[in-house]
Design a protein that fits this description.
Elements: H1 2-32, H2 37-56, H3 62-76, E1 80-85, E2 89-94, H4 100-113, E3 117-120, E4 135-142, E5 148-156, H5 162-216, H6 223-240, E6 247-249, H7 250-268, E7 272-278, E8 286-288, H8 293-304, E9 311-320, E10 323-330, H9 337-346, H10 353-366, E11 373-376, E12 382-389
Parallel strand pairs: 7-9
Antiparallel strand pairs: 1-2, 1-5, 3-4, 4-5, 6-8, 9-10, 10-12, 11-12
Length: about 400
């Protein structure tokens, strides 16, 4: 009997210790968490705004509007909320959906006059006895050029109070800024695609001329070599002018560069030496299409072609944790860095436009910290480096 009592006491002691530990953990979490009501309210507002911002940053469509209206209604504190453009209601959340036609017409008036509208119960007649709609606030979403293409409509279950009016106006202004950022992202993507097309046109004329000249020199003296060069040239141009995809892999880019260098060796012979040092684990890394070939071409054209004797082009790709570090270096004539910067900015002579193009595209995709780094000096050759993240949400090779 005494043994049973001892066992019971032991179990009780263990349970008490566990309860004390749980209480201590809860108190610790409470101290580390949001301590005050104001802090919690601030967190809730910011969290809801971030949830609404995500679909809006993809542009305003029926799908994105449907994802955003619920969070916008929470921000405004309305019983119902809709987003409408000049033609239709894009999405509605909450109560008052049976007033969609009236609210959409009011949104169209607000868009045509570029002014917000406050509606009362007399503006929204209804025969339904269970209708709670007593007013609404219609606020255009300002666009980047000042013109609005959509409006936010906040539904009230009472005469719209000044607080609801201000909340709707601020929410519309904030939503408009998110759409402006979406348009900016879209513009940057279109610019990047345009730059790729411009780069393709830019690198083709002189290379095509030089390649065909080199191939022609072998037609009679070495027909088999001429045939191989024609095949390499065909594969290079097929890759350069491919119709799909703004991104590629490092492996594909290096394969195209190998074809380019094969043709250039036919021009320069033993004067052109190439050294490759590529880590196998970085071959699948995705990067903007045609961002390495201009670097190699620049090394050959503006480094070795002006240098007497033998010249070396070194291409290195290293594994650097979350990034791939790539360098293209030549031991050519180099140039004054200040002159290089001036020519890169002006681009009048066309010598370094390819490098500027690659730099801008890298920054537009990966951010401003991932541009090209150019090291050069007269007589010291040129070294161009880039850092490419191994994984990036925008890059699909």
């Amino acid at each position: 009997m005494a043994g049973q009592i001892g066992s019971v006491l032991a179990v009780v002691a263990v349970l008490a210790a566990l309860a004390a530990a749980v209480v201590a953990v809860l108190r610790l979490r409470a101290r580390r968490g949001i301590a005050t009501t104001m802090q919690r309210a601030t967190y809730e507002v910011l969290h809801t705004a971030s949830l609404a911002a995500e679909p809006l940053r993809a542009g305003l469509t029926q799908a994105t509007a449907a994802k955003a209206v619920r969070h916008l209604r929470t921000l405004v504190g309305a019983v119902g909320l809709s987003l409408a453009d000049a033609e239709r209601c894009l999405a509605f959340d909450g109560r008052g959906h049976h007033h969609t036609e009236q609210l959409t017409a009011a949104a169209q008036r607000a868009l045509s006059t570029h002014r917000s509208i406050v509606l009362t119960a007399s503006d929204l007649p209804c025969d339904r006895v269970d209708c709670v709609v007593r007013g609404a606030v219609v606020a255009p979403l300002p666009g980047p050029d000042g013109a609005a293409s959509a409006a936010l409509v906040a539904v009230a279950d009472d005469q719209p109070a000044p607080g609801l009016v201000q909340a709707a106006l601020e929410a519309a202004r904030w939503a408009g800024s998110q759409l402006a950022l979406a348009e900016l992202d879209s513009s940057r993507e279109r610019l990047a695609r345009a730059e790729v097309r411009a780069l393709r046109a830019q690198i083709s004329p002189h290379f095509i001329y030089n390649a065909l000249t080199a191939i022609a020199s072998f037609v009679r003296t070495d027909p088999e070599r001429a045939r191989e060069l024609i095949l390499e040239f065909a594969e290079f141009t097929r890759y350069s002018f491919r119709a799909h995809g703004e991104f590629t892999t490092l492996a594909e880019e290096l394969r195209s560069i190998d074809r380019y260098l094969t043709i250039e060796r036919a021009r320069f012979g033993d004067r052109l030496q190439v050294r490759l040092q590529i880590a196998p684990e970085v071959l699948p890394v995705g990067l903007p299409f045609l961002c390495l070939q201009p670097l190699v071409e620049n090394a050959v054209r503006h480094g070795l072609s002006r240098k007497p004797g033998v010249g070396m082009v070194s291409i290195e790709a290293r594994d650097a944790g979350a990034e791939c570090h790539i360098t293209v270096e030549d031991d050519g004539v180099g140039m004054d860095p200040s002159v290089f910067a001036l020519e890169s900015a002006d681009g009048d002579d066309g010598q370094h436009v390819g490098l500027v193009n690659v730099d801008e595209r890298l920054r537009s995709v990966f951010g401003d910290h991932h541009g090209l780094i150019v090291e050069t000096a007269p007589g010291a050759g040129t070294k161009v480096s880039m850092r490419v993240p191994k994984f990036h949400p925008q890059v699909r090779a």
